[in-house]
Write a structure and sequence with these properties.
The chain is 0% helix and 59% strand. It has no helices and eleven strands. It is mostly beta strands. The radius of gyration is 14 Å and the shape is elongated. The strands form two sheets. Strands 2, 4, 5, 6, 9, 10 and 11 form a seven-stranded mixed sheet that branches. The chain has a four-stranded antiparallel sheet with strand order 1-3-8-7, with no helix packed on it.
Length: 119
């Protein structure tokens, strides 16, 4: 059974930092891309950052120069370092992994971790 285990959310003051982690079980297959999405109350889920197996990255304009995504392929783990946090970063953050297994590409989602930034 494929599992994505997220950790690292919490409450922080504006200007602070948090680091999110998401570990995928080995049964997930060959990862193509890993990323983080977020959903604030009353808003649609949006892409925050993504990284391919080759290391190419993509960021939402709102987090560029503040957030850094990285991955450890040996551990099937993706990280999101969030610096200079703002109240508008408050949301539930979801890990996403796109993987190939048995000739089929699937998207897998974590359970979500709450990030709250106070002003």
């Amino acid at each position: 059974q494929v599992q994505l285990v997220e950790s690292g959310g919490g409450l922080v003051q504006a200007g602070g930092s948090l680091r999110l982690s998401c570990a995928a079980s080995d049964s997930i297959g060959s990862t193509i891309a890993m990323g983080w999405y977020r959903q604030a109350p009353g808003k649609q889920r949006e892409l925050v950052a993504a990284i391919t197996s080759g290391g190419s990255t993509n960021y939402a304009d709102s987090v560029k120069d503040r957030f850094t995504i990285s991955r450890d392929n040996t551990k099937n783990t993706v990280y999101l370092q969030m610096n200079s946090l703002k109240p508008e970063d408050t949301a539930v953050y979801y890990c996403n992994v796109r993987a190939l297994r048995g000739g089929v590409i699937r998207d897998h989602w974590g359970q979500g971790t709450q990030v709250a930034v106070s002003s």
